[in-house]
Amino acid sequence: MLEPRVAPRLARGLVTVAVAGALVFLASARVTHAQVTEAIKRARQAEEQASQRNKAVDQQAQQATQEGKPGAKAPEKPAQGGAQNPQTGTQGGAQPAAPRRPAPMPRLTSGPTPGANAGGPGTHTVEKGETLWGIAQRYLSDPYLWPEIYRINKDVVEDPRWIYPGEVLKLPGATPPATVGAVAVATPGGQPAAVVQQEAPVQEAEPPEGSTVFSSFRRATSTASRNAFIQRPAPIVRSGEYASAPFVTAANGPAWSGRVLESLNGVSVDVDRKDRAIQLADPVSITPPSGAPPQVGTRYLVIRPGPTVPGVGAVVVPTGIVDVESIERGKAPVARVTKLFDAMRAGQGLIPYERVRVDSAARPVALANGPMTTVAYLLADPVLPTIQAFIVLGAKGITNPRVGDVFAMIRPATVGATGAPVPEEVIGTAQVVRVTPQALTAVLTGQNTGAIKVGTQARLAARMP
Known about the structure:
4 domains; single chain; six-stranded antiparallel barrel; six-stranded antiparallel beta barrel; Membrane-bound Lytic Murein Transglycosylase D, Chain A
């Protein structure tokens, strides 16, 4: 138990210690609160400054845009000695640029736009207070295209931040439209036809400084090349149709010395390799046809014998194409299957590959009362041959047949059950894709009914020039 005099002293000491600790805690709390307050104050000041800058940029952009409108009063140009921003027309450091908005660059006609000063066809004479920003807005409808004007006027403008009154600036894309022809437009009521002039595509030379992403030259050339590719005439007969089409040779069959020996593509299942069909992209060993030694890249057509058509000849059916890949002394050349038309097997023949020779711009010309022939053979003997099916036509009576000629499949005129005459009917069309002295191979290109069969009559309806 403490003495009466000691207890009050101990109590006062404890109180003093507690008060001191509380003062220290409050002092630290006040310092932390002051730091937070100062940080919030600085953030608010930064936000106010950013808002003021954004407002200034918006006002400058609006003012520069108004400079491009006819009749709008343009601000005076600052005196030389300060750097002028070519985008905003303001003096001083570069301001943050507004986001670029995509806008197509219109084609300009010769001469200035209405309300603009005349400095010659496709040019602009600088006036006091004008900037490249405002000129781009006036002529190109987009102030962000001012670099396009500067790029083609580097011989006049040394620094894009400074342009001076009296300078004559060339305008991009200022090419007058040319009239290349007239199209007669029919009008109702038998009135005279209206003549509408056609505008020729602008042919622009590449700028000496090279084209940019804004250049109309780039768009014009790319569009022209794309249109030229799309409009490029395709041959009337494709090389794939010519290569895969069956053809007819003499009655004793084709004489070939080349052969496909075997597939070199290993299989995980033990099967009879002779009965296994060769697949696309398989490597095969070959015996090349005699007459010309093969080279790497030489192409051969793989064929198999088909049926013999009485009075016509022996049918030969192409099964694919192989390209020679390697040649080693003492070994059979190795080729790879690049095209597959039918079942390809070991032992089938090889003949040199031939390309179709057809003018890409030539088209068959209609022929009235052409010579007649008949369908002699249908590949694979289909029940109902349809479009893209191969047929063989007799060549007798057809003078100088050519690849691309068109035949009409004819149902001859007959007498109906009631005794009424039934007129001749065209039931399909076929285009010749391969010609031999014995027969013509054609592919069905049109069909009205499924009545095409061996013995169907065919009339030459259009002949290649």
